[in-house]
Amino acid sequence: MEIQTLHERFLSCEGVCTDTRKITKNCLFFALKGENFDGNTFTQQALEQGAKFVVIDDSSYEKDDNTILVNDVLSALQKLAMFHRDYLGIPIIALTGSNGKTTTKELIHTVLSKRYRTIATVGNLNNHIGVPLTLLSMTKNTEMGVVEMGANHQGEIAFLCKLAKPDFGYITNFGKAHLEGFGGTEGVIKGKSEMYNYLQDYGKQIFINNSDPIQVEKSRNANTILFADSELENQLKIHFLDASPFVHLEFQNQHISSHLIGSYNFNNIAAAIAIGNFFKVPTDSIKEAIESYIPTNNRSQIITRGSTEIILDAYNANPSSMTVALVHFSKQKHAKKIVILGDMFELGPEAKIEHQAIVDLVEKLDIQQALFLGENFNKAKCNNPQTIFYDSFQAFREDFNTESLNSALVLIKGSRGMALERVMELLD
């Protein structure tokens, strides 16, 4: 089927779906394949549950006009998203980076929504399937789009940029994330910079944190919009005030008090301010947006359980984000600071070194007790009697004593696969 015809069918539907557990009435269902399933086999079920059309690539499941046969379902989804992006013709802001991209995306969305009808990536649907779904969630009523792009290997960001065709871009930072897939830190920089390359090749604009030397270097010949916490000319000035524990900053003589902890979140907030300012969102509205944003989904959430105050930052972790979180945490004024840390994944040959480095860092910081969970941390060495290692969450659970956290300030952080939000279940 021609993409234009598929797009006409799409416009007659009410949304897109790829999971029969989330079917909505009159949706367009894409029968994607996975490692352990073939979406074609769910064709009849999707129709019975209310899908208006089902896109398939196996002719044996073709039934009537409600089934749309294509050569490859995933390719059809991606091509439809590209066609729809051109059909809409709205400004698209692309976002990637090693750390903080989802928080930054949410902040940008919150700020831009003060003036424009804005659609942004939901959650972290930021891959070769999530980006098309984000684009297809936009309608003729949408005025701005914010598309988060994730990657764990070379070429992925370049491909996602071809799908979304962004007009603007921002890279939060270049950290030690997905080292295994990217082939080390230099590979991360090269892979993330694919966004800069795309925007530069097509004469688009890039937002640059002028205090990040890597961002500055990698965008040297690009069309840039600069911001930083400095008095240099030709850039937007956003001043960091403090982070005790929440980030406070100043912009155009306005004091802004956020609900985000850690000085490392200043750059995420500053990016949202810079982007909002560029798109002429009034300063008062920017302030209101930043101050109204409260993190959720296990990202730097502040939770109180009795006498225990918890910083739940268990959505994900890598050596870079773990380091800044620990340094900030150690500076908090509290007599009893405890960290519960889980393994960092996708580090490849660097895993042993990076986990030991975190253990060594904790030993040097003003932290009273450390509990490390996971196979990688369990291989590390430490002579501190207040440092305890567990090879699994189950081993931690069996040894856990709620009273040990009484009257403590606790940081919980680990990679997504560790699911350390489960610690909260032990406190309920």
Automatic annotation (TrEMBL):
ATP binds at G97, S98, N99, G100, K101, T102, T103. SUPFAM superfamilies: MurD-like peptide ligases, catalytic domain (SSF53623), MurD-like peptide ligases, peptide-binding domain (SSF53244), MurE/MurF N-terminal domain (SSF63418). Residues 96-275 form the Mur ligase central domain. Keywords: ATP-binding, Cell cycle, Cell division, Cell shape, Cell wall biogenesis/degradation, Cytoplasm, Ligase, Nucleotide-binding, Peptidoglycan synthesis. GO terms for cellular component: cytoplasm. GO terms for biological process: cell division; cell wall organization; peptidoglycan biosynthetic process; regulation of cell shape. Its EC number is 6.3.2.10. It catalyses: D-alanyl-D-alanine + UDP-N-acetyl-alpha-D-muramoyl-L-alanyl-gamma-D-glutamyl-meso-2,6-diaminopimelate + ATP = UDP-N-acetyl-alpha-D-muramoyl-L-alanyl-gamma-D-glutamyl-meso-2,6-diaminopimeloyl-D-alanyl-D-alanine + ADP + phosphate + H(+). This is UDP-N-acetylmuramoyl-tripeptide--D-alanyl-D-alanine ligase. It comes from Bizionia myxarmorum. The lineage of its organism: Bacteria, Pseudomonadati, Bacteroidota, Flavobacteriia, Flavobacteriales.
